[in-house]
Amino acid sequence: MPKVLEFFFDYASPYSYLASTQLEALTARTGCTLSWRPFLLGAVFKSVGKNSPPGGTFAQAKYQLKDLQDWSDLYGLPPFVLPAAFPMNGLKADRLGLVALAEGQIAAFTRAVYRRAFTQGQDVADPALLEAALAEAGLPVASCLARADAQETKDLLRKNTDEAVERGAFGAPTFFIGEDMYVGNDRLGMVERALRAGT
Amino acid sequence: MPKVLEFFFDYASPYSYLASTQLEALTARTGCTLSWRPFLLGAVFKSVGKNSPPGGTFAQAKYQLKDLQDWSDLYGLPPFVLPAAFPMNGLKADRLGLVALAEGQIAAFTRAVYRRAFTQGQDVADPALLEAALAEAGLPVASCLARADAQETKDLLRKNTDEAVERGAFGAPTFFIGEDMYVGNDRLGMVERALRAGT
Predict the structure, then answer these.
(1) How far is A58 from chain B (nearest CA, A)?
(2) pTM value?
(3) Tens-digit pLDDT profile for residues B165-199
(4) How far apart are the first and last CA of chain A?
């Protein structure tokens, strides 16, 4: 049985973006099955009593931007752009991610959202971005937008979020291999090591 | 000219411990010169308005301990032990580190302190630990303890700390290659990449 890697992420999270760019190659190298779990990072922060990012001090915020640029460079991605709207509200994008997942197009939708947000500086809450990303992923825009607002989708996003917090999450991205949790893009090396262990 | 890697660290910091175990091999691989810069992490936190570690929530503290164990395992170190006294006061150890540096024995002193703290669970503020670490490093215990309390040593620790904050530090370990800053044991890969760049 291939191992399952659960990827809890939010479309408003820059470090989730960075990690997402590595997952296709990671799953190919390790033979694991990837489980996409959009969740609402703002609600996770609230549940653990944290402020929204970037938070902290000016020194930390300044370094975090440099760090995001360093990772983009290391990964061979376009230069990192922090959207002017940051910190952003990922709620609509996260719900649409669940719809894209049900349609089998979450990888393409995620690439389309993140590229616009973190290499072009667009706001993930902007309907224009979301419609363009749906279209790019080959999804029917109007019906997907309607489904994103359905109670079933809202409940599923809340369920993912509550479950992540219940299992110990406090940030994004959060990875699980069974109940073995790893937090952050910078733990992907650890994730790969765990996926290879005992195989 | 070999590049200089500045290593700002505190003897009370578990992630500084982890990073310190990798520096000998890193400097050998890259040909850089290592500059040991003990500083007082508590004063850094205070200056940027942060609480002392482990801070945050129970979920974060629980994960951080697991993460420290993961890194110890990855690095092939003995199992990580969090001292019962954590968070600890590194002041005396940091001042002694400056004395050991002046005596050319900081690598040995640092290994001796960190092994006792983070693999045996001893308190870095405990005089018995400090005396044993000095002796293990081949240093004269009584005279080193006296020098650690000298105004010159106190001033130097404060200078290192103030300088680090001035240059943007907000945690430990903090690395500088010139004014290119990297924060955290988990950025050592980035540090190595920067040391190799353009050589």
Answers:
(1) 9
(2) 0.94
(3) 999 999 999 999 999 999 999 999 999 999 999 75
(4) 10
